[in-house]
Design a protein that fits this description.
The chain is built from 21 helices and 12 strands. With about 575 residues, it is α/β, with parallel strands linked by helices. Among the domains are: about 230 residues, ABC transporter type 1, transmembrane domain (ABC transporter transmembrane region fold, Up-down Bundle), CATH 1.20.1560.10; about 160 residues, 3-Layer(aba) Sandwich (Rossmann fold). It has a 6-stranded mixed β-sheet, sandwiched between helices. It has a 4-stranded antiparallel β-sheet with strand order 2-1-4-5, covered by helices on one side.
């Protein structure tokens, strides 16, 4: 219920549409009851051959009620749907505002298919909350009590029957089916999330599945998830249909009771027979409004589950963000970085990635972080970017704890090249303009030249994810983008791993020329070209093994020295 209260809070922003929807719905429902009760009374009255003006007044009243009912029903549909669409818009914006600061760390906690199912499917499910859950019971309550009050003037017994029927069809039976519905809804959502995950992995890994000839097995697994989802949907549909059938049966049973009791009262002279047809028509009409309650349990549980799944993505993560006041990181000069005894483990991972890591990077220093694959180098760089938060210890930028700074302000002051860099569908120009606003063509073409991409023009196309670019071209384009940003902090994660040695040397020459007064942190598994670094930090298994300048590490003949000897033996053949 707590999650639904959040949805209701977003919904109540549109108070005007809610009020108009309820008002029009009540007028449409009560005029429909009045229309059919007047019709029943008209038929009975006509059989007694009353004066013609009496029939004219009744016929005119019936026509007027029909017009009012139709217009009110249109108004109800218009205002309720307008309110729903506005609510969905507000909900998406509200959810995105909470989700956006959590990226990319959120992807470590939720599989992409499941996250997509929540963001798209569960938000769409909540469109039924207002239309099927929130205001229909309010309208139904108003219509029923108005009808029961009207009926009590003619027969207390019939009014009592209508009240009992109201309790059965709108409270007791829907409550029973709502309890059973939760099990079906949970299974449907779990199977839908599983199917979304399987489809996402199938699309992402299609090429590898074909290469390793495992496509058939994955297709069978996908088909199995599809069948499971369809079976859960079928069971849910059967349950909903049974709920609607039971509701309809009880509504007709109440009408039969009204007819039987009304006939008994007429025979005993306790009810004027001219009102019997009117009371039966009232019963038939008023219970037509209970149709919405037949599907109420399904939409109630749907909305409850959707709100819970949606807000579970951001609920716990948002708490930590809001508890601490964050400020913007501002610097016009190269920042200094201090890491104090940090520990870090990825979400849902039992293995500790970083253990008691401490280092000090002076302003304007050039630092290389080296070590074997899986030693924690890239993780340390991501923590410096505040893509994740440390479990213990702290990181400081210019003596300011990084967790008190907004991520955006840190990224704004950093030139970043990661191992995997995204390229958008469009042109070379489009992808370079991400660096900053106001870039000129000459400036961008100059950056391409520095990374040996001057054979490209700014209008050359880039396919989705840069599929038409080689691995080296992607890295060089990412480096060019970082050069164009030209901030005072450089965070480079294996920026030249797919580039040949000659081009790599040329690119590094340009980088260090531009970053002469900047703070540079370079993560690399290559040990060549590190002689000019102010500090080399050697990592393995999430710990710092040793640190120092190139000369001091070689003289020490420790971990770095052994790695250097191995690298030389591999590349020089002995």
């Amino acid at each position: 219920m707590k999650d639904l209260r959040i949805v209701i809070k977003v919904l109540l922003v549109e108070k005007k549409d809610i009020f108009l929807s309820i008002l029009c719905g009540f007028i449409a429902g009560i005029t429909a009851v009045a229309l059919f009760s007047a019709s029943g009374y008209l038929v009975s009255k006509a059989a007694l051959a009353p004066p013609i003006y009496t029939l004219m007044i009744l016929v005119a009243s019936v026509k007027m009620l029909g017009i009012i009912s139709a217009l009110s029903r249109y108004g109800e549909r218009y205002f309720s749907h307008r309110g729903t669409f506005t609510m969905l818009s507000n909900l998406r914006v509200s959810f995105y505002e909470k989700l956006e600061p959590l990226a990319p760390g959120i992807f470590g906690k939720f599989r992409s298919g499941d996250l997509l199912a929540r963001i798209v499917g569960d938000v769409e499910t909540l469109q039924n909350f207002f239309l099927r859950v929130f205001y229909p019971p309010i309208v139904l309550l108003l219509i029923f009590f108005s009808t029961i009050f009207f009926t009590s003037f003619f027969s207390f017994e019939v009014a009592l029957i209508l009240f009992v029927g109201f309790l059965l069809t709108t409270v007791l039976v829907p409550s029973y089916f709502a309890l059973r519905q939760s099990k079906f809804d949970r299974k449907v959502r779990e199977s839908r999330a599983a199917l979304s995950t399987e489809v996402t992995e199938f699309l992402y890994g299609f090429r590898d599945l074909k290469i390793y000839q495992q496509l058939e097995g994955k297709e069978k697994q996908l088909s199995k998830s599809t069948v499971a989802y369809l079976q859960e949907q079928e069971q849910e549909s059967v349950h909903n249909l049974f709920s609607q059938a039971m509701n309809t049966f009880l509504s007709l049973l109440v009408t039969v009771c009204v007819l039987a009791v009304g006939s008994y009262l007429v025979v005993n002279g306790e009810l004027d027979g001219i009102y019997l047809a009117m009371l039966v028509m009232v019963s038939l009409t008023v219970f037509e409004n209970t149709t919405s309650m037949a599907i109420f349990p399904s939409h109630w549980q749907d909305s409850k589950q959707a709100a819970s799944r949606l807000h579970s993505v951001v609920r716990n993560e948002s708490i930590g963000k809001t508890q601490m006041k964050q400020e913007n990181f501002q610097t016009d000069i190269a920042p200094k970085i201090e890491v104090r005894n940090i520990r870090f483990t990825y979400p849902n991972d039992s293995r500790q990635t970083l253990d008691s890591v401490s280092l000090n990077l002076e302003a304007g220093s050039k630092t290389a972080i080296v070590g074997p694959s899986g030693s924690g180098k890239s993780t340390l760089l991501q923590l410096l970017l505040h893509l994740y938060s440390v479990d213990e210890g702290e990181i400081l930028l210019n003596d300011i704890p990084i967790n008190t700074l907004t991520e955006e302000s840190i990224w704004e002051n950093a030139n970043v090249v990661l191992q995997a860099n995204h390229f958008f569908y469009g042109t070379i120009r489009d992808n370079l303009q991400l660096a900053k606003d106001g870039l000129g063509d000459d400036e961008m073409q100059g950056a391409l030249s520095k990374v040996d991409l001057d054979h490209f023009t700014l209008d050359d196309s880039v396919l989705e994810k840069g599929e038409n670019l080689s691995g080296g071209e992607k890295q060089r384009l990412a480096i060019a983008r970082a050069m164009l940003k030209n901030e005072s902090l450089w965070l480079l994660d294996e920026p030249t791993s797919s580039i040949d040695a000659l081009t790599e040397a040329k690119i590094y020459q340009h980088i260090f020329s531009e970053a002469k007064a900047d703070t540079v942190v370079l993560v690399s598994h290559r040990l060549t070209g590190l002689e000019k670094m102010d500090q080399i930090i050697v990592m393995d298994h999430g710990k710092i093994m040793e640190s120092g300048t190139f000369e001091s590490l070689m003289e020490r003949k420790g971990y770095f020295y052994e790695m250097k000897k191995i690298e030389q033996s591999v590349f020089l053949g002995g």
